[in-house]
Amino acid sequence: MFEKSKKPNDQKSEAKNMAPDGQSFKAVIGSTVKVVGEITSNENIQIDGNIEGSINSEEHEVFVSSGGNLLADVRAHVVVIEGTVKGDITGLEKVVVCQSGNVMGNIDAPRVTLEDGAKFKGNIEMDPTVPPVSNVRPGKVMANAVDIAEAVKSS
How does DSSP assign 23-70, residue by residue? Predict the structure, then answer.
């Protein structure tokens, strides 16, 4: 009886500590923890508590859970926000502000996703040197404005 109810909870807590890329978060700032200062991490980090200062994890992911509250600048390879961030965010690969996320600050990343319902106030800077991912299906014919203008002139 106790075994059955215990196993789903264990699976939930394991899933909660998993990054979207399937890797686990080794470093977790708990919901009752408050950190003031600079955090530098060489592994994925999950934030459930309160941070004031800065977070740097350039080769890894920073995940701010729905209970996370940051008054901090964040710099990481990937930043995923479900909680609240007041500060500037730099994602070297991408930044995702989830539906429950609330960001007040600037975002700088090659790719930015604001899910429907996400709250955001600030500026977004996307690096123009990074080519966008094309959603063109094979076999679909695409024409640019110059081709269309020339076709109209010749008809």
Answer: -B-SEEE-TT-EEEEEEE-SS-EEE-SEEEEEEEEEEEEEEE-TT-EE
